[in-house]
Write a structure and sequence with these properties.
The protein has 187 residues and is of the alpha+beta class. It has a domain of 128 residues: Arc Repressor Mutant, subunit A. Helix content is 55%, strand content 13%. It is built from eight helices and six strands. A three-stranded antiparallel beta sheet has the order 1-3-2. The protein has a three-stranded antiparallel beta sheet with strand order 5-4-6. A hairpin with a 6-residue loop joins strand 2 and strand 3. The protein is elongated and about 70 Å long. The N terminus is likely disordered.
Length: 187
Amino acid sequence: MLGSGVLSHLFLYSYKLGTLKMRLTNQNIQDAVIEAIGKEALPIVEYLKNRRNISDFKIAEKTNMRIQRVRNLLYQLYDNGVVSYIKRKDSVKGWYISYFSFNPKGTKDFVERLRKQNIKKYMERLEVEEKGDLFFICPNFCVRLNLDNSAEFDFHCPECGNLLKQQDNKKTINYIKEKIRELEVAG
């Protein structure tokens, strides 16, 4: 059986080599969009799936959202590669109209990039937790501090003033390892 440190390094090694691959599912897309942009963007993504070159006005109408908010969310989705767009000049009014399409490849890259960022974040957090530092937590769950920060506040919560209690971080370590495993399995 591999020790936790070895297992962590194997995950990090796989991450650095870029061997982590993933399947694009509706749940992957929804989770990534919510994390990076917000839940409000989901109706736009769902509406654009399997559609091409839909105007921002039509998207606003179909999602019952204000056009300004739709445009803001569309540009955030564009910045993350979830949608692509083209601009065409309206021959009658002379205005430029943007037409948006769902971008499956860009979305897959976005979801994969976000997943790798999360794995890296959890790996860094796991390294901190496994160093063997002592952690202290407020009984009201206001804060969680390491030994040095706890000492600065005389082992009292800086928020509510309660005496901090030492926390066994084994559950935290196990939780982080489980999150890493979930992210690995998703790939």
